[in-house]
Amino acid sequence: MIATTAPTAGTGAWCRKSTSSARCSCDGGRYRRRASFEARFGITALGVARPRQRTSNDRAATGPPVTATGGNTPGGAAWVTEERYAAVSRVLIRVLFLNLAVALAKIAFGYASGAISILSDGFHSLTDTAANVTGLIGVRAAGQPPDEDHPYGHRKYETVAAASVTAFLLLVMIEVLRNAFNHLTGRSAVPTITAASFAVMLATVGVNLLVISYETREAGRLGSEVLLADALQTRGDVWTSVTVIGALIGTKSGIAILDPLAALLVAGFIGHAGFQIARATTRILSDRIVIAESDIERIVNGVPGVLGCHHIRTRGSSDHVFLDLHVWLPPAMPLTEAHDLSHVVKDRLIARYPQIADAIIHIEPPPPRKF
Hints:
This protein is of the alpha+beta class. The protein has 2 domains: 2-51 and 289-364, Alpha-Beta Plaits; 78-285, Up-down Bundle (Alpha-lytic protease prodomain-like). Helices cover 59% and strands 8% of the residues. It contains 10 helices and 4 strands; from the N terminus they run E-H-H-H-H-H-H-H-H-H-E-E-H-E. Helix 10 links the parallel strand 3 and strand 4 (356-364). The longest helix is centred in the first third of the chain and has 36 residues, at 78-113. 43% of the residues are buried.
């Protein structure tokens, strides 16, 4: 059995034999026998024309490269390793200042009025700021290129940063529950609600809606879990703020108990947001399947000369996938032709799924019972 990760005409990724990191001997990734091989089988590697290399002017004019499946070009490209992480960082910095302004406004008016619901919502927004800082640290680490200690790159640092948002949400939920309990048991004074309190809450809701729209759009464009997690968290902020506004109306009307009850509801929203983020990031960190096995089989089996495949495994995030599989080739096929055909298989897979950062193909004859 031979394992190859070859440099391909469409991707330029390196080839290795077995599990070593040695380069493929196929002329720097442009195969000497490719022309006669393709003529024999009547196929091309990608089935499409090779795209022109994007220049800095192209990237400035059109943004990140778009894949055939609507996503973004995967981690092997220089744009991803440099410009992508820089773009994610810029988004986080802008959102950080917006979240900080929202949090300070809520906390100030919460202390001034004594409204525990406003104060709790302010602490909730303050954790957004802390989460942005954590995200910036994680994105910076994730942007580092692969090295000897991290041959698969540092992409998961971004996922870890997204997961850490859950810890911030847990802390703020505990604080909100503590303050709500104090109000329900009469340990705190009845809050003073003014028109300024409503104005602050409505203004912060507007800012949060702007942040959600901006981060969701950029998360899809850049394929970033950190931005998506932060957008989900901010979406929870909107619902909590709406709940707080309702509680303020009730408190202003003389129903003071609505203020601590709203704080309890805020705690529920916070817990739900934390669960969603934890579930999404855990799927990546636990190496949950990314691309369906049947989809990989269909593409591989469509390559002339391939007899079948099995032991298909994918892992990683939606925009940075690692794939390995076993491909069955005719037992009598010369090694050099089998090697070239493995490149064709890899090219076909990456043409269909550009988010594949690396693919390891194990070449072997089919089991006797199959053919």
